Every structure is written in C-alpha cells, then in structure tokens.
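Blinded run. Sample ID left blank on purpose so nobody reads anything into the name before looking at the predicted structure. Input follows.
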Amino acid sequence: MIKQQLTQKQQQKLSPLQIQQVKLLELTGLEIEQRINQELEENPALEEAVDAPAESENEDSTAEFESDDDITQEDLSLGDYRTEDDIPDYNLPQNYYSEKNTREDIPYSEGESFQEFLLDQFHLKNLPDEKSRVIGEYLIGNMDEDGYIRREPESISDDLAFQYGIEAPVSKIKAVLNIIREMDPPGLGAANLQDCLLIQLKRKEKTLTRNRAIQILENYFDAFSKRQYEKILRALNITEEDLKEIVKEIISLNPKPGNAWESNMDTKMAHITPDFFVEAVNGELIFSMQEQNIPALRVSQEYGEMLNEYTQPDGKQDAGKKEALNFIRQKLDSAQWFIDAIKQRSVTLKKTMSAIIDIQRDFFLSGEESDLKPMILKDVAELCGYDISTVSRVSNSKYVQTNFGIYSLKYFFSESMTNDEGEEISTREIKAILKNCIDEEDKSKPLTDDLLMKELKNKGYDVARRTVAKYREQLNIPVARLRKEI
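Blinded prediction complete.
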C-alpha cells in the first residue's frame, strides 16, 4: 500500500563557494600561485589586474553589469543553470607545473638517475654473453631505493622465463649478481642488512679487526643486532677494547647504499618556501605573508559589457543567444566567487597566524623551546573565532620563517601537563628534558623507561612509565637495550 508522508529535517550543506574556500585554504603559497594561474587559463571572465588595484577594478566591473534595471540578483544566481560539469575542478594536480608559474629561484638540473648510474657501470663490465646483460639489467631494475635486491634468485629465474623467454638457471643469476655487487657504491645487490654489511667489509683491506667483524656478522649477527655484547665477548674470547674497535668498524658502514644517490628529482628540488614571516625587532614582532607572487584579480569588464548586451530586450531570443547568455553568467559568477575565495583565504590565514603569534609570543622573541606554551587547535580556534577544522587546514603544510629558522605551524601545537608546582607546561618541554637525560646517561648502562620516569619525577615532572615510552618513541630513540655501548 502506497503512503504519502511529509517530514521535516535539518541538513547542513556547503555551497560551491564554501567548498572552493575550503580547498583553497589547504594550499600552500606556491600551490595557490599555480591554482590562480590555472583559473586564469580556464575562466576567460577572470583576468589579472595590471594597471589598477583589484578591489576598485572589481567593484567597477561588478557594478557595471549589475546596474541594468532588467538584471536582478536572482538572474545572476547559478542555481538555475549550473551543473556539476560546469563547476571547475579545484583539486590541484600534484604534478601540475607550467612555464608561467615556475619560480625562478627554484634550482633545476637534469641529473642521472640511480638506475642509469648503475646501468652505465654494468655495461662497462666484461660480460660473458648477451644473456648476462639481460639478467643484469633485470636485477638492477628490481633493486629498491636502499640498493637491495630482496627477491630470491628462484623467483627472478621464473620471471625471466615468463617475461623474456630466457632460461636462466639460479647459478647464472647468482654469477651476474656477484658482478653487480662489485659495483659502486659498496653494498649494492644485498638481500638483507647482514649481507650488505658483509659485502662492504669483504671489499676492504683485510685487518684483524675487520676479520673479526666479518666473523661476528656471519656467526653472531643476531646477538650483535640486539647488543648482547657479553655473549660475543665470551664466544670470541676478546677484550672490551677489541670489541669497541670492531663495533666502530661495523657502524661506519652504510646500511642503505642506495640512499647515497639522490635519484628522485623531487628530492633534489625539495625546499621549503615559508608562507608567513615573523620578525623580532627591538622586542616587537613584525608579521607578514607570502603574497608578493599572488597577482591581483578582477572580473573582466569586457564580459560585463557582453552580459549587458545580451540582456537587452530585443524581441525573441533564440536558443544560441540564450546559451551564450548562460555561459557568460556562469563565467562571471565563477570569477567573482574565485576572487572572493582568494580574499577570504588571505583573511583567514592572517587571523589564524596572528592568533598563534599571540599565544607563542615569547617563543618568537627568544627562539627558546622552553618558551613554547601548550597550545592545541581549540585554543587558536577560540582566539581567532574559527572552527577547529579551519585552523587544522591552515596549519597543514604551512611554514613560518622567524629570526631563529623556519618552522612548520604544527611545531607550535602541543598538549599540556602540570608539574609539581602546579604550572601548566608543554609536553614538548618534557620531551626536551627526556632527550637530555638520555644524552647524558651512561651508555654502558643506559636508563630504562622506569629509571627515566624516576629521573623526570625528580625534576618535578610526574609522568607515567608508558607516557615516557610514548615520548621516547616519538623522539625516535630506541629502548635501553639497543642504546647500550661498550
């Protein structure tokens, strides 16, 4: 049985302008430049204001096509004729770079990749036959960024048979692999860390210390990796001084030989361009933003005049003229929306960064980590009057340049704790003290998490052992057993 029912419900829905503002807010300074250039290319009704300020030009052009008595605000609404296909895609492509928006201060050089570097070496080797060349090129192609070939020779043999129709026995693959292991940097082609270290040691001039190091890696690698030095001392019947020399020799080796070569062009070109600048001058803070490369925008006057012409009452309008009118309206509204979104982005960034400066004023003046105050997203949101999600978007991937270096905005956010004196302190301060305790410990008897907890408690910080372990892991510091030295 069919029934009709009327219900009321509230639903929150973002307008296209709000969605556009949210997406633009997440972009960095360089990305917003690229986004503006992209919009200038896609929307003919948007143009760069060269001769006059954007605001005056924009207001004049807007007033011009809004002044006609026959045109109302409802006529300019996009709701009646705008479809999803007409809305520009505001997702910035990660690999979008054009000649127009390439910054001159970005160094660029076309370098040789890691794979090409290895292939050049390999082709200079005296190979026994053509099959060895194909096998070697395939092995180099299967090398990971660390310089390891982690696949088993049996699997590689199967791949060569299926993909190239080459019958390559395991012995043949191992022979070619040994040729690769003779190339630079030392340690290439290893199957694991133990293999990598042994390859490097065996290529060096033989000494007593290196022979013992090879012996330890071959027979006691598990004990060495767990720093069970007493077991090694008993097994080899050597002194602690001898073991110190052996450990020094081993840790001087490169565990990831492939990382020595920067094969990724993005890594070579990677650098940080700050979005904000905070300069301390005579006890005062001067705040500015990276906006000199962002062009002033305005709505095209020509398109405004075209809209006036098409809306003049001249009798019956044909389908082509109506379609042209809708196109002009779409582009004009889209241009005005984009300009408003850019302006709103600038205002939001300034207010949010100003709130962060107000809270962390002492740090911006001194640069001392101990002057960082506990601050979470909610604190900034309440001060600048925005939602927490807005503050999160602003702080994501943004950097500020100070007198003491360039910092990510996320660096200034930390939780708070209370010390024995009842003062609210930042967890970053506790981490700094924890790191200092570990740096000053006796490396022959490193402090466990329980002992570190007691050390912090003696300094006035009542922290649980599991919290100490969490902070230690966040600082990328291993457990006491792995910090032990002879």
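Unblinding after everyone has recorded impressions. Confidence is low (pLDDT under 50) at residues 52-110, 263-269.
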